Amino acid sequence: MNKHPNELAVITLTDKITVLNETSSSYSKNHDYKLLESNVEEITVIINSFQNDPSILEKKLHIIVPVLLDEFFEETKDITIKIFKSKIFYNLSKVTSLKATSKFLTTNVFLLPLIMNDLKSLGKSTENRIVDIWYLHYLLLASLNTVVQSPFDFKDNYAEIIEAINSFKNNQLFITILCQIRAQLYFKNKEKSKHDIEKVTSNPEQNEDLLTLNYYLKLLIVNAKSIDIEELEQFFLTVLSMEKLTCFILNSASASASSSSSNRMNILNKLLPKLFILNGYFENWDALEQIISWYLSHFSNQSTDTRFIIAHSFKKILNTLCNELKEVEMAQDILINDIILTTASLLKEKSWDMIDIDFLHTNLLIIAESIKYIANSLTSTYLLTISNEIIPKSLTFQQLQLKSIKGNQIKDATNFICWSLARSRSTIPIPVLDSVFLNLLTCSLFDHAYIIRKSSTAALQELLGRYGTKILDHPTIMKIIELPINDIDHSYSENIITLYSIFNVKFPEYWDFIISWLFDTNIFGTNFNLGSVKLTAKSFTSLSNHVDTAHLVASSNFNAKLFQRIQQFIKAGKSSKDRYQLQLDSAKIVYLLIELILRTKIAQDKDVLQKYRNFLDELITNFKAFDIFKRHRNINSNRLFQYTVILKIFIYHFASNYEQTLKFTKDDCYRFFSIVKSIPTRDPLVFKEFDNLTKQVISVLSDSIRSKFENNEVAELFWKEYEKQIKSNNLIVCSSLPKLEPRHFSEIFYKQLQTLSCQSKSKIIDSLTADTTKFQLLITSGLLHENSLLDFLNDYTITEQGDVGRLVRTSACELISKNKNILLSGSTTDLRIISKLIPSLIRISTEPATELKKLAFTLLSDIFKSSNDDSKSIHCQLLTFYDEEYIKDNTIYMRNFWKGYMMTLGAVHATDEDLTESLNEFIRFYNNRTSNDEKLELCNELIKIIPRATELTQENLKFTIISLNFWERLFQSGIRWPFEFNIKGVYAKLYNLHLVEIHSDDGMLMLKLGVLRLFPHLCVVYQDINNDNPDLVVPFVNTIIKRLLVLIQRKSTTDSTNSIKKKRISEMIKRSSIESLLQILLEFEMYHELKVVKSACKSDDVSKSIWTDDTLPEQILLKDNCVKNI
To answer: Between the chain's N and C termini, which has fewer beta carbons within 10 Å?
Structure first.
């Protein structure tokens, strides 16, 4: 039988600890701890892998801990070895618990002197090298805590132990252990600890005192059977002292409840059940009532963690009443009236908006904690109350607070109730099982929040695993357990079909419940997640398309349920005072009815269809009666849903199968454009939904033959506003433009083309991509000019948002890709169009954007019928494509190819991986050129691509800067350049570029800095090409040095007259010039000249240097011997 991975990890962990223990003695001799430390880290990693499920590890602690600590307290044991083992022990305690690991620590009292010796000596250690000494302190204190629990009073060691542990009280990690040790010593040494006990029992101000008191009282209660009430006075507890202590703790708890001191509050909540027991021993009924009253008045605590602790503590109070004090009737009265019935009463409220959600949460947690007692000790009436009145409502509980929907905590607590009930091993009535099962099932599949679906599924699986066969058969149980819950869309569209197939025949009452739940919760209930309305309509559509509609309608009495609820809603709406909520609820029903009419066969019967339409017309009239555009409000989910419904109403009225088709009025124009102007387009899901609805409306309205407009005046008004929205770059409207008739589209598109943003163009192109027929019609008729596609591919618009032109290029590539078969196999006109696009596609295929690059390259491969090796990098494929196809033989193709490649390799912002890959592939490509002439031709082409100074504009400035980056990276790569490569010509081109003055200061600065960074590389390459001819090298290098010196001196002298920004630019150019100069001097090993440069600066900070020596240029020029030396 295969072992669980965690079980194998435990075996590995045990083996590693055994080996560690056996070999540690050898390490202590030679002090070589590196390998040992590595082993400890491996063990720690294994231990921490159990954090999600420590139970398997906990079962093996009885083996692991003794092996780990074997001979640990030997006096000769190396301290580093002890720290390593202590670190392992700490991690074991962290993952399981200190209580679990402490069970297997030795209780040998003869080890006390060794433990105390280590604590006193190591506690005062100030050696900096012992950085992890606290691990050892932790283990020593844990061991001391275990030893003092042995049956000895330790009166002779009392003072010594107290003094030793007090030295560690500043470390919060040790507080719990220290308090446990004190409590043991106080309990065993009443006389010696009299003063300390009186302090913690009379006025425990500090959290440390409260925790000590908690453990001290716990010891008293555990030993209560062997202690008479009279003997409690020997432990300094009397009726009077208990009253004072209880009063103090309650006051302190009340103060902490209103503060942020959650840690103190948690300790106090642990103390109260113990005080309750002790007051019960003293028969101090007033104190008992005070404690119960305190709990009942603090259920509304705002801290979630505290509410869990309150619920758990209150459960202990109820247990004490039943078990120790035998006040069963009192406990049951509190549980029934103050908890169960109060909770049920709260959830019966018509509106949940005013319910204290924290109070409700605590009540539900107490029910979950007490559910076993409720099931076993109370009558089934109260279990039915929980299953029929509490669980169904709390599992759908919601509160709308500002912009968020609250209620997940309530649902989670309800799932906790169901889970606890399933694990209670009680005899649960079948009606209770049915109710819990069905509510968990619907919540696990259809709740909006994944975390709630997950917790409901856990409770459902627990219920089916323990009680499933009482209500279902085994195959059905397995089908339900296997239902996926991750995707909410899948649940509504696919799981609903599975549920129908499971329940429809065998368990029709369960299927009836599911249909009713969808109606009552998502449509007619107060579900604030309006997406659930759409999903519910989607589920009915899915059902109608996949099952026998007639049987579906009949089996669940679908239409009767729906009509009954609509009638009730309309009747209640006539007297409703909340007009806003009435409008929203009307919108939900309208949406559902329209979807059922237009997309399903549920209303296929004529009489049924007429009822649907009658209800719908009345609801639409009521819905339109409230002008949602009258007052300006923030666009929230409710408003967006209402907008959706309005557009759905338009579509419903336009539907050809609706006999009483209504005309589009002036008011409808107002509504339509109010909606499209309000839609937040940044949310892709919202945009997608409204984009689709708007296109449906525009598609109908654009039909000039069957006009839907009330009259020509309305039509003229509509299209005038429509064109205005296009001009304003309304993305929703722009996206709908291709839905117009071809000639109307072309007219508006080219009229507004110059005003369209890149985002708008991209949306228009995307819509054309989705409509292949429309695109083909536009192309063949010439209504979409062939040059427009070329302009799209060449859009390099740059704004503050960056390269927004990429949106257009990407959309254009997708458009061409979708219609490539049309363009490649069409008429001569189509082939002419594609041939025009090839140069741009070649350039785009080599640009930096990875996805766009791949898309364009795939298109090129289809055009040239080329096969690609996807196992190779995209850059390798591109360069191979360059060699194998017609690119290198076509000047236009070739130039566009290298323009794109330069943009990739010269990109200012790119990943190291992408730059390295593109550079390595280029070097491989260059080195594979078979002749020197090919290399020279390639180098010359790459230089020609850089714009000349006379060609430089604002538009091509970015490409020029990228080109300079490209060449800098090539120079840095160490490529061997052809002897004939005209470096002087390159210098001349760069020299002219750095003289250009353009309007963009930042662009001019980047251009000049790019040129200056290339100057040293030109010197090195020129020297490399002409290594045997110093007469050529020296003049060329000195020319560049002189130019750099001129730049340095010129910029320095103009600093005083320039603006702040100009000064910054001057400073940066000066700094770059100096850096380039120093790089040249270093490359030619001119160390003396370097010293001259340094001495010519006022300070060592080169970036702020100003030349003062007029003779400097002659002193640092290159000499012949410098070239010869190299």
So the answer is: N
Q: Tell me 494's DSSP state.
A: I
Which residue did the predictor score with more confidence, 194 or 477? 477
CA distances to 517, 564, 608, 649, 1064 from 615, in Å: 21, 11, 11, 13, 73
Mean pLDDT of 1015-1023: 91
Count CB neighbours of 844 within 10 A: 28
**What are the structural domains, with CATH classification, of the chain?**
299-486 (1.25.10), 957-965+984-1053+1067-1105 (no CATH)
Q: What is the largest CA-CA distance in the chain?
A: 115
Calculate the CA 832 to chain-centre distance: 48
Write down the residue that tokens 């109608």 correspond to: 544
pLDDT tens sequence across 359-373: 999 999 999 999 999
Q: Return the amino acid letter for 348.
A: K
According to DSSP, the β-strands at 399-401 and 404-406 are antiparallel
Tokens of 716: 């003229």
Dihedral over alpha carbons 103, 108, 109, 111 (to 10 degrees):
-110
Closest CA to 763 of 732, 726, 724: 732
Pairwise CA distance, residues 190 & 235, whole Å:
6
The helix (H) or strand (E) run that includes residue 1026 is none
**Taking a C-beta distance cutoff of 8 angstroms, is the pair 1005, 957 a contact?**
no
pLDDT digits (tens, 9 = 90+) for 1070-1115: 888 888 988 988 888 888 777 877 776 655 444 444 444 455 556 6
Taking the C-alpha atoms of residue 1038 and residue 1033, their distance in angstroms, rounded to an integer, is 8
| Residues facing 1020 on adjacent strands | none
- Per-residue model confidence (pLDDT) at position 861: 85
Cα–Cα distance measured from residue 760 to residue 807, given in angstroms and rounded to the nearest whole number: 10
Q: Distance from first CA to last CA of the chain, Å, rounded? A: 73
Q: How many helices (H) and strands (E) does the chain have?
A: 58, 2
Helix or strand or coil: residue 903? helix
Task: Record the pTM.
Answer: 0.78
Q: Is residue 525's pLDDT more than 80?
A: yes
pLDDT (0 to 100) of residue 223: 77
What's the pLDDT band for 1042 if we cut at 50, 70, 90? confident
Distance between CA 505 and CA 1122 in Å, rounded? 98
Cα 222-227-229 angle, rounded to 5 deg: 115
Beta carbons within 8 Å of 579's beta carbon, 6+ residues apart: 626
For residue 257, give Cα distances in angstroms to 224, 269, 355, 952. 31, 10, 20, 71
Q: What is the pLDDT of residues 88-101, one digit of tens each?
A: 999 999 999 999 99
What is the average pLDDT across 608-633? 75
Query: Residue 19 contacts by C-beta under 8 Å, 6 or more apart in sequence?
Result: 39
Q: 958-969: string of b/e by CB count within 10 Å (b at 16+)?
A: bbbbbbbbbbeb
The encoded tokens of residue 891 equal 């000047």
State pLDDT tens for residues 682-704.
889 999 999 999 999 999 999 87
- Confidence grade of residue 144 (pLDDT, cut at 50, 70, 90): very high
How large is the angle between the packed helices 983-995 and 932-944, nearest 10 degrees? 10
Residue type, 517: W
- Beta-carbon contacts of 510 under 8 Å, excluding residues fewer than 6 positions away, are 438, 503
The answer to whether the beta carbons of residues 453 and 485 sit under 8 Å apart is yes
Q: How far apart are CA 829 and CA 223, in angstroms?
A: 100
Residues in the chain: 1126
The tokens describing 793, both together, are: 């591919």
Dist CA 1095 CA 1053 (whole Å): 19
Cα-based distances in Å from 124 to 81, 112, 489: 19, 18, 63
For residue 168, give the H/E element and its range.
Answer: none
Classify residue 271 as left (phi > 0), alpha (psi -120 to 50) or beta: alpha
